[in-house]
Amino acid sequence: MQIQFFGATHEVTGSCYLITVGKSKLLVECGLVQGSHEHERHNSDDFPFSANEIDAVVLSHAHIDHSGRLPLLVKRGFNGNIYSHSATVDLCAIMLADSGYLNEKNAHWENKKRERKGLELIDPLYTKDQAQQAHKHFRAMEYSQSKEILPGIKVTFRDAGHIIGSAIIELELTEQGRTFKIVFSGDLGHENAPILRDPEKISQADLVIMESTYGDRLHRDWQNTLQEMGDIISNANSRKGNILIPAFTVGRTQELLYLLNQHYDEWKVADWDIFLDSPMGIKATEVYAAHAETYDKQAKKIKHQNGKLFNLANLHFSERTDYSIKINRIKSGAIIIAGSGMCTGGRIKQHLKHNIWRHHAHVMIIGFQARGTLGRALVDGAKEINLWGETIKVNAKIHTVGGLSAHADQQGLVDWYSQFENQPRVVLVHGEPHAMDALQGKITQQFGCKVIQADYKQILTL
After folding, report:
1. Cβ atoms of 273 and 316 closer than 8 Å
2. Does this model's pTM top 0.85?
3. Which of 62, 136, 179, 221 has the fewest CB within 10 Å, making it most exposed?
4. Contact residues for 199 (Cβ-Cβ < 8 A; gap 6+)
5. Is the pLDDT score of 216 beyond 80?
């Protein structure tokens, strides 16, 4: 039996790992590469394996950097089952269809340019219809449920606390009478985060495949994070400018709405009109509302008392494009929550175009920004940005609120690993090199176990 690494090696996106046990081939994750155009071009590359030879897929959660190439896998010949938590099944129905729609849209505009230049036309990576066809392969599981999904491969999902339905994946692999246990951390949640429970602890494993997104830093504590958010909102002058919040449509958007509701008076939220300008974000919020079984005690209590978690009186849902265009005309008094979270696409770019040059506008960055993205450029202090060929001066105040991350920080990752009683060896994935280096050093120093960083196409014999 063996595992081979095909994604999220020395980078954060594109998670993909192939496990072989006897004649069974299992793919864990099948994510899109995200970041610069140069990075994203690799999404159309051939898979480094035959899609029709994969017997099943296990998916930790719905984020596109973990799930986004699944329709392409089906398009290229995969015909097995895709196992995930039931909330992930619901989210992927929304997110993969949206990804297919964006692929079609991008291909349409690219082909207009190619036609004018007499170049060969391109096909979209996959279409909305192909994404919907791929969704028929999904099979729902719940936390703590164990299932033998292939000969010699049994899977159990544990709560990862990252987004709704996110899972730590336990795999028991059996071949020739020997059993080997791999634990994939997936993306581990930030302890004490709103709405969801903390990541589950696991005591035994032979190998841990572990994310390292924030392996080199500590988050600001929750009290200070909430204080910072409150200061930004309550100190901004609603009569002079808008607050733009690029937010991941799944997880971060719902946490933000929850916190605005919980701190409504304290943060003077009533001074603003709040716009959730994201059709997918609206649908994802409905999925969050439908899976109260995944909530922590506080969220369950609020749900029981109020019936809803996101019932702000001044919250407006913007699904249609014409409504979004009207929001662009608002010069002050609006908190605009829109995707994408890294400012690489979606409606947030239009809002940046209409606001970022204004001296009284604010941009609140509340999530991880990968290298090569527009969001990362803003965090790094860009004085100008380029949108659709137009150079726009950055006059708005850029705020980076690091403590609201959906990922565990270095201490959270170390604490989670510390629960393994047998101190199994570790393979780090899903992190930039400096983050991996720091976490590798920290775990090695504290526990004395073997820690390596996965390389692309590296094979580990188990």
Report:
1. yes
2. yes
3. 136
4. 158, 159, 160, 161, 162, 168, 188, 189, 191, 408, 416
5. yes
Q: Is the pLDDT at 367 greater than 90, yes or no?
A: no
> What length does the chain have?
462
Quick one: tokens of 297?
Answer: 């005690």
Domain count, the chain: 2
Q: What is the pLDDT of residues 179-206, one digit of tens each?
A: 999 999 999 999 999 999 999 999 999 9
Q: How far apart are CA 14 and CA 29, in angstroms?
A: 8
- Asked if residue 114 and residue 100 are part of one domain, the reply reads yes
Is pLDDT of 67 > 90?
yes
Q: Which residues pair with 230 in a beta bridge?
A: none
HSE, side-chain direction, 13 A CA sphere, residue 346? 26
**Non-local CB neighbours of 345 within 8 Å, separated by 6+ positions:** 102, 339
Q: Give the model confidence (pLDDT) of 239-252 as tens digits.
A: 899 999 999 899 99
In this structure, the answer to whether residues 26 and 122 fall within a common structural domain is: yes
Q: Tokens for 212?
A: 């390292």
Longest CA pairwise span in the chain (Å)? 71
Alpha helices in 58-119 (DSSP H): 64-67, 70-75, 86-117
CA 173 from chain centre, in angstroms, equals 28
Contact 164, 184 (CB under 8 A): no
Contact 414, 208 (CB under 8 A): no
Q: How far is CA 290 from the centre of its chain?
A: 20
Give the domain range for residue 113.
2-217+408-461
Q: Supply the mean pLDDT for the chain.
A: 95
pLDDT given at position 314 = 96
Q: What is the CATH number of the domain that holds 144?
A: 3.60.15.10
Are 130 and 259 found together in one domain?
Answer: no
Question: What is the DSSP annotation of 423-436?
Answer: --EEEEESS-HHHH
3-class DSSP assignment, residue 43: helix
- Dihedral sign, CA of 385, 390, 391, 393? negative
